[in-house]
């Protein structure tokens, strides 16, 4: 398959986009590359994407009850698939509870 960075570069509308727009486009591309023809991904694939593409955010979360609840939901019904909207909600939820978010908040923005 074509690397995400190359796919991102091929989207002409993103040529002069902000970092935020490119970040969201990257999320959409990662999702779309895993999605079936109906635009959905299995819960097992969702869990795999989180572990392989979002590992820095979920690292160290294993003992948090909310994280365990989210992951157990993905383990329970493997036939059910999720759409892009649910995937984004999941990413935002995991980001908000991550230890990495605090580190990001502490990054200096001026010299």
Q: How would you describe what is shown here?
A:
The chain has 111 residues and is mainly α. The protein has two domains: 1-34; 38-109, no CATH class. It has seven helices and two strands. The chain has helices spanning 4-9, 19-34, 43-53, 55-58, 65-76, 84-97, 99-105, and strands at residues 41-42, 81-82. The chain has a two-stranded antiparallel sheet. Helix 3 (43-53) packs across helix 5. It is flat. The model has no long low-confidence stretch (mean pLDDT 89).
Q: How widely separated are the two ends?
A: 41 Å
- How many DSSP H or I helices? 7
Low-confidence stretches: none
The value of Rg in angstroms is 15 Å
Number of strands: 2
**Average pLDDT reading:** 89
Number of domains: 2
Oligomer type: single chain
Estimated share of beta-strand residues: under 5%
Write down the secondary-structure element order.
Answer: HHEHHHEHH
Largest sheet: 2 strands, antiparallel
The global form is flat
Global structural class:
mainly alpha
Approximate helicity band: 55-70%
**Lateral arrangement of strands in the main beta sheet:** 1-2
Topology:
Elements: H1 4-9, H2 19-34, E1 41-42, H3 43-53, H4 55-58, H5 65-76, E2 81-82, H6 84-97, H7 99-105
Antiparallel strand pairs: 1-2
Helix pairs in contact: 3-5
InterPro entries: EF-hand-dom_pair (IPR011992), EF_hand_dom (IPR002048), S-100_dom (IPR034325), S100_Ca-bd_sub (IPR013787)
Protein name: Sentan
GO molecular function, one term: calcium-dependent protein binding
């Amino acid at each position: 398959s074509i690397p995400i960075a190359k796919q991102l570069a091929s989207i002409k509308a993103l040529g002069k986009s902000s970092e935020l727009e490119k970040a969201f486009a990257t999320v959409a591309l990662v999702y779309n590359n895993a999605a079936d023809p109906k635009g959905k991904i299995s819960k097992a694939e969702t869990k795999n994407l989180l572990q392989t593409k979002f590992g820095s955010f979920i690292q160290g979360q294993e003992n948090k009850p909310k994280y365990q609840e989210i992951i157990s939901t993905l383990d329970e019904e493997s036939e059910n698939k999720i759409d892009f909207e649910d995937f984004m909600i999941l990413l935002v939820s995991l980001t908000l509870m991550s230890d990495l978010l605090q580190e990001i908040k502490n990054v200096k923005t001026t010299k």
